[in-house]
Design brief:
6-stranded mixed sheet; alpha+beta; 4-stranded mixed sheet; 589 residues
Length: 589
């Protein structure tokens, strides 16, 4: 799914894992599973999936998979879509490309024989898709140009009645036509669009996108055509259950499991459900990170999280898999308020942050290596990642603050200027032990430079509308999703705010409230650059300029913990990709 504005619903990404914890679909060669790491034995992984040979996985059986809630829609482009919608969509619908373990979009041969774009410099850009001729919807009709055309009409923004989330790219399409035969689709663009591989994933049947009524139909609105290894055979939102069974028309490798039962199990109940053998696969980051102290105990948030992790690791017959999620945790600086309106203060603060110490404080207790993040746009395991922190120079932050007029008292303590202390508020999501550890480390870092920090934990439902969007904060801790199309996906986060009709600043998704025309142009050029090396160079330049602007400080990738019952192959913490559902199943005894 490419839809990614940080809305109130997406505040669940505030340092806690969602139910779909990123993935890597290709089977790995069989090997002996590594021992479960402890917090004293941290590991850095881009994906941690139980290895297997497909022949070692037996046919049949039912998998029980934990959701936050049975989704109201399978259409990931509806406003009501959730991460659970995306999880089910991956099992039920085509995606022409899927991300590999380094976030690169690669063709999925189950749906696509080939896809070629005209070379850089040749206009107009035309992408020719060669569909797998065996790929059919669950009514037996093949995937066709009608499906592509209807989805483009729904997502282009030309008809507001669809109310779509408007993923980037569809508005850049000029025309869609059938090629030499029904399995060849030609898509022409008005201007070059480098991220064309991100389109049509998922691809929905024309019957579900051709009209606004069909597009907005909830999941309970009747049978849905699908074209994945599984099809939806049961839907009970009140009972918290959605059932997917083998698709009898599936043309690819036969799914190993007969059925997958997707069960709504709140995070706080998942460890109990695993202990009682009621689940096989369950994301548990939130269960650990937001664990509550047991009644009658005095355990604080950190202790409760430690106890929950120890319990998860000790559950009989269960292994906790760990990975760095495709989500970038950063410290955002509000450049439109108080001392942070001064760029030199923002740069001094960025220089004062010890990213490695903070990453270790946040991640080591979860058994992950404290790898600091050095890019605003790419995760450490993404192809082309580079740490650009040196763009802010190596100047001593104390000297920068002195030169900005913020003087430290002779006896130490908080800096002052004109009788005012250099004291900043720090917004963090309430209830998160990871966020609290991060905030504590940040507070200690900045105190060493004479910057006082007052941490304020805020509930998820008010974090975005009441604070980020309103500009009611100085510093804020949260995570942005990281995807395979940063030139398009990340642009709104750093786009230069514009003055509104009433003179107020319209920041949009740029909660740092600072930007430049140059950064905007770099993103636009990268989005239109078809040469991969040249596109990456433009993104690196954009990231360098964002560092120099003092917009935000990348800290680390959000952690992802997934509990999997022993004997289940092909499941775990998927990193960048998503599950290859037809390969997940029970190992032969």
């Amino acid at each position: 799914m490419r839809v990614r504005p940080l809305t109130t619903a997406a505040a669940a990404l505030l340092l806690a894992a969602g139910p779909l914890a990123g993935c890597s679909g290709a089977p790995a060669p069989a090997r002996t599973p590594a021992p479960v790491p402890s917090s004293a034995d941290p590991v850095a992984v881009t994906g941690d999936v139980r290895p297997y040979e497909r022949d070692a996985v037996r046919d049949g059986g039912t998998l029980r998979w934990a959701l936050d809630a049975v989704p109201a829609t399978l259409n990931v482009y509806q406003g009501a879509a959730t991460a659970d919608s995306a999880l089910l969509a991956h099992a039920l619908y085509p995606a022409l490309f899927r991300p590999d373990e380094h976030g690169r979009l690669v063709a999925d041969p189950d749906y696509l024989e080939s896809a070629e774009s005209t070379p850089p410099g040749q206009l107009p850009q035309v992408v020719t898709y060669r569909l797998n001729p065996h790929a059919v919807w669950s009514d037996g009709n093949p995937l066709s140009v009608a499906d592509f055309t209807a989805q483009r009409a729904a997502l282009s923004g030309l008809d507001p009645a669809y109310g779509a989330a408007r993923p980037a790219g569809y508005g850049a399409i000029d025309s869609i036509t059938q090629g030499a035969d029904p399995h060849e689709i030609r898509v022409a663009f008005r201007q070059p669009y480098a991220e064309w591989r991100s389109l049509f994933g998922p691809l929905y049947p024309a019957a579900e996108t051709a009209t606004p009524d069909a597009f907005t139909r909830p999941l309970a609105g009747g049978p849905h055509l699908t074209a994945g290894p599984f099809r939806l055979t049961g839907y009970d939102p009140a009972g918290g259950r959605a059932t997917a069974a083998r698709n009898p028309l599936w043309w690819g490798e036969r799914p190993k499991a007969d059925r997958i039962e997707f069960l709504a199990v709140p995070a706080e109940q998942r460890l109990d459900a695993l202990d009682q053998d009621r689940l096989d696969i369950a994301p548990v980051t939130t269960a650990v990170d937001r664990a509550s102290a047991a009644p009658g105990t005095s355990a604080d948030q950190a202790q409760a999280a430690d106890e929950a992790l120890r319990r998860a690791q000790s559950l009989p017959g269960v292994t906790v898999h760990r990975a760095s999620a495709p989500s970038l945790t950063q410290l955002t600086l509000n450049a439109a308020r108080g001392p942070l309106t001064d760029p030199s203060v923002r740069l001094a603060l960025a220089r004062a942050v010890d990213r490695r110490r903070i990453a270790e404080a946040a991640l080591a207790p979860l058994g992950l290596a404290g790898a600091p993040l050095g890019s605003h746009l790419l995760a450490e395991d993404q192809d082309g990642y580079r740490d650009n922190a040196d763009a802010i120079g190596r100047a001593d932050p104390d000297r920068l603050l002195d030169e900005a007029g913020w003087k430290r008292p002779a006896h130490g303590g908080t800096r002052t200027r004109d009788g005012r202390e250099l004291a900043l508020s720090l917004l963090l999501p309430a209830g998160s032990a990871t966020a609290r550890r991060t905030a504590d480390a940040l507070t200690a870092d900045l105190a060493e430079t004479g910057i006082a920090v007052r941490a304020a934990a805020v509930p998820a439902d008010t974090f975005v509308p009441g604070h980020l969007a309103a500009g009611d904060y100085d510093l804020a801790l949260f995570s942005w999703p990281a995807g395979p199309s940063p030139a398009v996906d990340q642009r709104p986060v750093y786009a230069k705010p514009r003055p509104g009709a009433d003179g107020s600043l319209e920041a949009g998704s740029n909660y740092g409230r600072t930007g430049t025309e140059e950064i905007d142009r770099l993103f636009d050029r990268a989005a239109a650059e078809l040469d991969p090396a040249a596109r990456l160079a433009l993104l690196q330049e954009a990231d360098t300029r964002i560092w120099q602007l003092g917009h935000s400080v990348p800290l680390y990738q959000r952690p992802d913990l997934v509990a999997v019952r022993d004997g289940i192959a092909g499941a775990g913490a998927w990193g960048y990709g998503w599950p290859r559902f037809q390969d997940i199943g029970l190992l032969t005894p």
